């Protein structure tokens, strides 16, 4: 057998390299950046090297260095684990192990390196074999997936392409880089780049080959804004409508409600009560009352819509809400958790209407320290519906708004602002971190097409409501913890030391002191030092990457970012199922049940489900925002605007528009001609010619060069390094300054979203 010695040497060097992970000849071909027509030669060369004893085969024809076969056989005798596989964007993943019915503590997740993911997709129920050679840099267990037991889904959205006589679909939201075959499509109204829904009948290999499917639905042209939304909803499995039996149950609840006040509810209808929401709000799930009492103390009453009254536990309404677990806020529509008959009517705390609530009553000292907390059923009547804009106007010009709103309401607003700022100051002193990156708000015209975008602003009116919601959430969790109940907490684990070391190195590289980051006060000082500077976005992004994601679970681990030992979600039962579970526990206590907790295994499973659904909803929202922004940018190819460098890599830069907050890539060949080198210290690209230095936080003027809708990537070209040398911003964006902040956000249909603490 004649083989190329040069190719054989390249394959041997690659297989013996430290970064190599067992893979098939086709993946070796791709790693060596060879052409597809060389695949047969690579296979033949690998076979020859095996015969020569320079390489070996493991199971499933994976190529390995010689001598590892026995190690592979030992691994085959290692224990098996089963669980839900979660695929990371980088290609590796984790298996959430399946526990026994009596399991009270969460089992450790199993890390799966990219080469051993096999043909598993995100959410699949898989079986993996534990291996003894753990990754020391990561710690914990490592496993290799051996088979998929149950697929999470077989339906995917995708883009149709005809290649010669072959009909293909590239699936959305998967790791596959190659399309699957969909057979005969005659009779279907299909054009290239149409969005479709596919049922996969044969899942492809890890390299993307062998996939087969059937087109189940033609969504339409990818240029249609409504099709983008439907494709993302299909991609992420979002339900389109409520089943008829769920709607019938909601109507039955509406027919029974008569606004009378039962004897087991405190009548607070005479207490001055305000709601503060965006101007286009349709459902009001929280209201505030505040009184100054003796000893210079405050009595804060946070009234939350009593959704549990209208959704009986175990009912069809409850089952559907549990499955959804969260409302989803897309740019052009809301996918609600519960029917609007309840969320926008029965449970909405509308002005001048008697409404049922769960009230958290907290007494504070003059300085904002908690003295006592009560939680009880109430009936309220909102006296005034205010918008965030109105409250901000009052804070800017109290005398003018006093004439419009009256003394009683304005005095209440002034008290609310005074207490909220005290609570905020105390929270920051205790080490609470504000790590949320500004959210992007898409501005749509009447046809659902993008006319611009902006970053939402967290004004003082939002901060007032945010502080009171945080106080209520903390108060309820503390109340339960004092009684030693198990419940669904909002957990935010402290970051790993390894990630903090990486963050400290990043900060050092860009010239920011970042020692002792295990102390959250040090992290807070870093965030404060870059606030409202060009480095703000980059540093906040780095800190977010270094920290863990907040999740739901019954174990008492505290909330790192908020610096709180006791925390749960209570204040949004209209849109979050975990809040509804907390309301039900309150109800059981008021009814005399001395043990309102669900068993730990039930809470663990529910926490996993709600965390997964929240992650899915956030991913769907981000995906659709990105798609709509890319469509908008594609219509403005060649337009220029000002941007800030947000990331620096050896092969180019990422920059984010200032007025149009879209991040795009500037390849190194789009920079002024020079020989550039990447300097990790300072995170910059350095050229030899004067002025050819680009670093994190630099302001640049860019133009839209290219939009790749399939890869969902945006590419910029550099016009100049600063605004003075480039044309003025003229990308069409007629959006008004945002006032809908990160404490609450509503879309065109009135959906609401609060901070994700």
Overview of the structural elements:
It contains 17 helices and 35 strands. The strands form eleven sheets. It has a five-stranded mixed barrel with strand order 3-4-5-7-6. The protein has a five-stranded antiparallel beta sheet with strand order 10-9-8-11-12, covered by helices on one side. A hairpin with a 6-residue loop joins β30 and β31. α14 (520-530) runs antiparallel to α15 (536-546). It starts with a helix and ends with a strand. The relative contact order is 0.09. Mean pLDDT is 86; it is low at 100-104, 133-138 and 723-754.
Short structural summary:
The protein is α+β, with helices and mostly antiparallel strands and 757 residues long.
Write the layout of secondary structure elements.
Layout: H1 5-15, H2 25-31, H3 39-51, E1 56-57, E2 63-64, H4 69-76, E3 80-87, E4 93-97, E5 110-112, E6 125-131, E7 141-150, E8 155-163, E9 166-171, E10 180-181, E11 194-202, E12 212-221, H5 225-235, H6 244-256, E13 266-267, E14 274-277, E15 286-293, E16 297-305, H7 316-324, E17 328-330, E18 333-335, H8 340-346, E19 354-364, E20 370-381, E21 384-387, H9 388-396, H10 398-405, H11 407-429, E22 440-444, E23 450-455, H12 460-482, E24 489-491, H13 497-509, H14 520-530, H15 536-546, E25 551-553, H16 577-590, H17 600-634, E26 640-649, E27 652-657, E28 663-667, E29 677-679, E30 684-686, E31 693-695, E32 699-708, E33 713-720, E34 744-745, E35 753-754
Parallel strand pairs: 5-7, 13-20, 14-21
Antiparallel strand pairs: 1-2, 3-4, 3-6, 4-5, 6-7, 8-9, 8-11, 9-10, 11-12, 15-16, 16-19, 17-18, 19-20, 22-23, 24-25, 26-27, 26-32, 27-28, 29-30, 30-31, 32-33, 34-35
Helix pairs in contact: 1-3, 2-3, 5-17, 6-8, 9-10, 10-11, 11-12, 13-15, 14-15
């Amino acid at each position: 057998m004649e083989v190329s010695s040069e190719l054989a040497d390249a394959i041997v060097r690659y297989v013996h390299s430290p970064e190599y992970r067992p893979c098939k000849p086709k993946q070796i071909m791709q790693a060596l950046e060879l052409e597809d027509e060389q695949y047969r030669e690579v296979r033949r060369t690998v076979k020859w090297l095996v015969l020569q004893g320079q390489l070996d085969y493991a199971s499933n024809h994976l190529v390995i260095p010689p001598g590892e076969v026995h190690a592979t056989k030992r691994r085959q005798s290692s224990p098996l684990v089963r669980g839900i596989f979660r695929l990371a964007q980088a290609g590796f993943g984790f298996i959430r192990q399946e526990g026994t019915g009596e399991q009270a503590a969460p089992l450790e997740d199993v890390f799966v390196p990219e080469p051993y993911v096999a043909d598993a997709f995100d959410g699949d129920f898989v079986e993996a074999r534990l291996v003894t050679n753990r990754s020391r840099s990561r710690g914990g267990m490592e496993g290799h997936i051996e088979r998929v037991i149950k697929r999470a889904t077989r339906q995917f959205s995708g883009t149709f392409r005809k290649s010669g006589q072959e009909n293909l679909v590239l699936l959305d939201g998967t790791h596959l880089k190659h399309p699957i075959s969909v057979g005969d499509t005659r009779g279907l109204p299909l054009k290239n780049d149409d969005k479709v829904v596919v049922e996969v009948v044969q899942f492809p290999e890890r390299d993307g080959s062998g996939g087969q499917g059937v087109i189940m639905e033609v969504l339409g042209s990818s240029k249609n804004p409504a099709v983008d939304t439907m494709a993302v909803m299909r991609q992420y499995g979002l339900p389109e409508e409520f089943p008829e039996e769920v709607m019938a149950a909601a109507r039955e609840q509406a027919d029974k409600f008569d606004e009378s006040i039962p004897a087991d509810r405190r009548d607070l209808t005479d207490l001055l009560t305000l709601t503060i929401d965006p101007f286009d709000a349709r459902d009001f799930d929280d209201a505030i009352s505040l009184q100054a009492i003796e000893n210079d103390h405050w009595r804060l009453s946070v009234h939350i819509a009593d959704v549990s009254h209208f959704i009986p536990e175990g009912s069809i309404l409850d089952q559907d809400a549990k499955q959804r677990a969260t409302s989803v806020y897309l740019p052009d529509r809301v996918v609600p958790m519960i029917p609007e008959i309840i969320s926008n009517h029965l449970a909405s705390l509308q002005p001048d209407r008697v409404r049922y609530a769960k009230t958290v009553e907290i007494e504070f000292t003059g300085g904002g320290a908690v003295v006592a907390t009560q939680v009880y059923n109430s009936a309220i009547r909102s006296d005034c519906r205010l918008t965030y804009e109105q409250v901000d106007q009052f804070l800017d010009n109290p005398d003018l708004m006093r004439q419009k709103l009256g003394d009683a309401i304005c005095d209440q607003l002034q008290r609310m602002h005074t207490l909220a700022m005290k609570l905020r100051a105390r929270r920051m002193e205790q080490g609470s971190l504000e790590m949320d990156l500004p959210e992007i708000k898409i501005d749509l015209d009447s046809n659902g097409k993008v006319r611009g975008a902006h970053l939402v602003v967290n004004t003082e009116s939002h901060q007032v409501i945010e502080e009171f919601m945080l106080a209520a959430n903390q108060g309820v969790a503390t109340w339960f913890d004092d009684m030693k109940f198990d419940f669904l907490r909002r957990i935010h684990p402290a970051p790993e030391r390894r990630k903090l070391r990486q963050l400290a190195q990043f900060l050092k590289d860009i010239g920011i002191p970042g020692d002792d980051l295990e102390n959250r006060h040090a992290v807070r000082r870093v965030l404060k030092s870059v606030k409202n500077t060009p480095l703000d976005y980059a540093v906040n992004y780095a800190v977010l990457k270094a920290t863990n994601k907040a999740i739901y679970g019954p174990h008492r681990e505290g909330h790192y970012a908020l610096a709180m030992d006791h925390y749960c979600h209570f204040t949004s039962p209209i849109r979050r199922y975990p809040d509804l579970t907390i309301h039900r526990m309150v109800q059981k206590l008021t009814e005399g049940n001395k043990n309102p907790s669900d068993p730990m295994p039930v809470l663990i499973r529910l926490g996993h489900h709600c965390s997964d659904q929240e992650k899915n909803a956030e991913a769907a929202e981000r995906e659709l925002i990105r798609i709509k922004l890319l469509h908008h940018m594609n219509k403005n190819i060649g337009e220029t605007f000002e941007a800030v460098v947000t990331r620096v890599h050896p092969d180019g830069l990422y920059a984010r528009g200032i007025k149009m907050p879209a991040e795009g890539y500037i390849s190194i060949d789009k920079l002024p001609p020079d020989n550039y080198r990447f300097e990790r210290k300072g995170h910059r690209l350095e050229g030899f010619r004067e002025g050819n230095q680009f670093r994190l936080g630099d302001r640049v003027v860019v133009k839209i060069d290219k939009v790749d809708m399939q890869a969902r990537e945006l590419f910029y070209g550099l016009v100049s390094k600063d605004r003075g040398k480039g044309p003025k911003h003229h990308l069409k964006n007629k959006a008004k300054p945002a006032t809908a902040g990160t404490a609450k956000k509503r879309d065109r249909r009135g959906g609401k979203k609060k901070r994700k603490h």
